[in-house]
Write a structure and sequence with these properties.
With 295 residues, this protein is of the alpha/beta class. The protein has three domains: 2-87, Arc Repressor Mutant, subunit A (Orthogonal Bundle), CATH 1.10.10.10; 92-160 and 261-294, D-Maltodextrin-Binding Protein, domain 2; 163-256, Periplasmic binding protein-like II (D-Maltodextrin-Binding Protein, domain 2, 3-Layer(aba) Sandwich). Helices cover 44% and strands 23% of the residues. It has helices at 2-16, 19-26, 30-44, 60-88, 100-117, 134-137, 169-172, 219-227, 237-245, 275-294; strands spanning 49-51, 56-58, 92-98, 121-127, 141-146, 154-161, 163-167, 190-191, 196-201, 204-209, 214-215, 233-236, 250-252, 261-267. Strands 4-3-5-14-6 form a five-stranded mixed β-sheet, with helices on one face. A three-stranded antiparallel β-sheet has the order 12-7-13. Strands 1-2 form a two-stranded antiparallel sheet. Helix 1 (2-16) packs across helix 2 (19-26).
């Protein structure tokens, strides 16, 4: 550390022209600056400065040494300025992962709006329903749906997510609507990525295994199959709300509807979030709040 103190003192003396000016800049005494320069010259085994009562002047070796050291300290200042700038505005690459349908419909447009505000930001979005390991796979954050598992990640709730069981009017023209969870055994259930549907039975979470002749891992495909009368399906409300309002789907088992699910934004636990992550999270929360109120 002493070497850097000596080099910094030397650079500032040359840059500012006097020992006293360098001392004021570094908040030390002139005698301390003088001692640092002497020690630096002893360390290098050469004289760097000619000292007179009126001015200082670089020796030939001092000039060469100063040019190298000046560029080094200029680089330090530029690095500090760059970091300070990064702390005030989002730059660099923001890497996030989101669920496919919800991400395409709600998150991607907001990401695009955020990029318009911050043209120096680069964004990489990965759409997948797979649970991505954020730290291991190098992501800044994720938008996840459902009930969160215990983890070391920090989570912020973005949106309530209610699970709805629905069928089309055409389907219910052939089958009586279920009134109990046991009635699901009598129905064709459209099975998604999980063969267990989640319910709330008198305030207690309950999972019911379902079966049918349709299986798939796409929410939009499940929705289409339900609209075409192939069976009952359980989907989050953002898939089915518009179709319920239009009468194209009929919700059932409302007394058992599971409401303790949500859409979350999750990110690794760091002491200081980078501006790109912190500002994007704040932007996302604010814009989704607006969407809720408009709805």
């Amino acid at each position: 550390m002493n070497r850097w103190d000596r080099i910094e003192a030397f650079v500032e003396v040359v840059r500012l022209g006097t020992f006293s000016a360098a001392a004021r800049h570094l908040n030390v005494s002139s005698s301390h600056i003088s001692r640092l320069i002497v020690k630096l010259e002893q360390q290098l085994g050469t004289q760097l400065l000619y000292r007179t009562t009126r001015q200082i002047k670089l020796t030939e070796t001092g000039q060469i040494y100063y040019e190298h050291c000046r560029h080094m300290f200029d680089g330090f200042r530029e690095a500090e300025a760059a970091i300070s700038d990064m702390q005030s505005s989002p730059k660099g690459v923001l890497k996030l992962t989101v669920g496919t349908t919800f991400g395409e419909r709600y998150i991607a447009p907001l990401v695009n709006d955020f990029m318009l505000r911050h043209p120096q930001l680069e964004v990489r979005i990965h759409f997948t329903n797979r649970r991505v390991e954020l730290i291991e796979e190098g992501y800044d954050l994720a938008v996840r749906m459902g009930v969160l598992e215990d983890s070391s990640l920090i989570a912020r709730r973005l949106w309530d997510r209610n699970e709805r069981v629905v069928g089309s009017p055409e389907y219910f023209s052939r089958f009586s609507p279920p009134s109990t969870l046991q009635d699901l055994n009598k129905h064709q259930c459209l099975v998604g990525s999980r063969d267990r549907w989640i319910f709330s039975d008198k305030g207690v979470r309950r999972e019911v295994r379902v079966s049918g002749r349709w299986h798939g891992n796409s929410g939009l495909a499940l929705l289409d199959a339900s609209l075409k009368g192939l069976g009952l399906t359980q989907l989050p409300d953002y898939y089915v709300e518009e179709h319920i309002k239009k009468g194209e789907l009929i919700p059932v088992l409302g007394d058992f509807q599971f409401k303790d699910s949500a859409v979350w934004i999750v990110y690794p636990r760091h002491r200081h979030l980078s501006p790109k992550v912190r500002m994007f999270i704040d932007f996302l929360v604010e814009e989704i709040e607006k969407t809720k109120h408009q709805g």
